[in-house]
């Protein structure tokens, strides 16, 4: 079982000087730290965010051409799917709750709380955040997560029978490799947002969007709106012509070239 | 002022499967999470650790040739310095307290607690960790940090009159750019351990060791032991022939080439 302890957290939102060159980055960090106080974000989620920050920096902190292409393919796949589901963890809920609700409404995909560190209290908090952001229903909270995914151990295998269990496509972000692999083994398609092109999730997903989750979600919603009236054939063509491995290679080449340019400019 | 709140932390040390491919990485993370419970590590320190993890991954999680060279130059500088001081933050104390105490004894450099998020309770905890690891004295705790560094705002400028204030060389790791710049402006030499070759600390320090702090400290202590009997001239030659900018360039080129190779192997 988990052991739980009380600790003190100091929010330094008011201590950030307005002139600090990385002010925006610091404010996003404080958002996560503050959501750790509510229990929605776990400490391990902060470490994961740090890894993401690093890759985002290497990617130039912008949505690059390869990411735009994977967003387009993801929009096509979401529109082609009969039952897409959005899997939400603590970091996702803390960073872009309204944007997730909008995407959910636009593609008629339910939101399901699905945590690496499962715990009913946390599920409820995340459910609350999503409902406060406008969600009419949130799956995967408490006994709703009653179905099990055989490939995974312990509490991580619990999913909602109305959600991920019956989904043909799962949209997720910053996910553990084991879990992404389990979903793929079950025959589901996975759209993953992951800043690390080398993570097991990135390598395993059907479509990996190598970009910052905060930038991706609104862009994806916009793209879905734009592509809504396309024919199934056209959407199929876009989805089929997308090669995830090639796209990941492009992102690695981008980082490689950027590092090499930065070395020259030192 | 800081606001402080009670939150729950779940340690998952016992939930990590022994077969997990990244077990060691997960255990280091738990060490930090557990030290957040004692107050030694702050949430922002977890995010910083995550950034470090990413760069370590890009560097192949080993001490590369350029890092070996900077460790050699650092050993020379420590042996040449008349009053070197080791600046310790929460993450450093949580990850390698014994190794820091050994380095401190080997180069006769006092340990000084020096926090970005200063707070007497935290200072005391970190002092405790270091004393438990064998330190006979720890500077920078409470009223000992009575001198001020003019370049820095608020609590971050407080240092010990017996430590960083009078040091000619400061050894630090995972440090904020503003603070490293302030130390350099005061005419001090700075040896920085930083996995990000592009951070302001890395760019500003006299010697930057682009490697994982946990690997660096014992290696640096060993190098100091090996070089102890060298003449001042020989040590000077080693230190003078080290060019920090060139070394940082090499680390960037290394990452660039590694990413390009990984892209080919996908």
TrEMBL record, chains A, B:
Enzyme superclass (EC): ligase
Keywords recorded for this protein, A-Z: ATP-binding, Coenzyme A biosynthesis, Ligase, Nucleotide-binding
Keyword Ion transport: no
Annotated source species: Sulfuracidifex metallicus DSM 6482 = JCM 9184
Pfam families attached to this UniProt entry: PPS_PS
MF terms in GO: acid-amino acid ligase activity; ATP binding
Protein residues bound to ATP: 29, 51, 194-196, 200-201
Keyword ATP-binding in annotation: yes
Classification lineage: Archaea, Thermoproteota, Thermoprotei, Sulfolobales, Sulfolobaceae
Subunit structure: Homodimer.
Pathway: Cofactor biosynthesis; coenzyme A biosynthesis
EC number assigned by the record: 6.3.2.36
Protein name: 4-phosphopantoate--beta-alanine ligase
InterPro entries for this protein: PPS/PS, PPS/PS_sf
């Amino acid at each position: 079982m988990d052991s739980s302890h009380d600790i003190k957290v100091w929010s330094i939102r008011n201590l950030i000087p307005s002139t600090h060159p990385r002010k925006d980055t610091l404010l996003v960090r404080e958002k996560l730290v503050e959501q750790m106080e509510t229990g929605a974000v776990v400490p391990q989620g902060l470490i994961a965010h740090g890894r993401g920050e690093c890759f985002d920096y290497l990617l130039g902190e912008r949505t690059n051409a390869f990411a735009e292409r994977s967003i387009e393919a993801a929009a096509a796949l979401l529109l082609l799917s009969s039952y897409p589901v959005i899997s939400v963890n603590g970091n996702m809920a803390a960073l872009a709750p309204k944007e997730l609700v909008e995407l959910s409404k636009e593609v008629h995909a339910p939101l399901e709380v699905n945590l690496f560190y499962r715990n009913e209290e946390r599920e409820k908090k995340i459910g609350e955040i999503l409902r406060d952001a406008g969600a009419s229903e949130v799956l995967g909270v408490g006994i709703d997560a009653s179905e099990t995914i055989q490939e995974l151990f312990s509490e991580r295998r619990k999913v909602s029978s109305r959600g991920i269990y019956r989904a043909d496509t799962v949209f997720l972000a910053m996910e553990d490799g084991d879990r992404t692999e389990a979903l793929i083994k079950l025959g589901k398609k996975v759209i993953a947002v992951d800043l690390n092109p080398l993570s097991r999730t990135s390598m395993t997903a059907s479509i990996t969007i190598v970009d910052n989750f905060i930038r991706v979600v609104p862009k994806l919603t916009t793209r879905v709106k734009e592509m809504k009236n396309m024919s199934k054939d056209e959407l199929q063509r876009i989805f089929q012509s997308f090669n995830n491995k090639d796209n990941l290679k492009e992102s690695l080449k981008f980082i490689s070239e950027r590092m090499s340019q930065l070395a020259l400019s030192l």
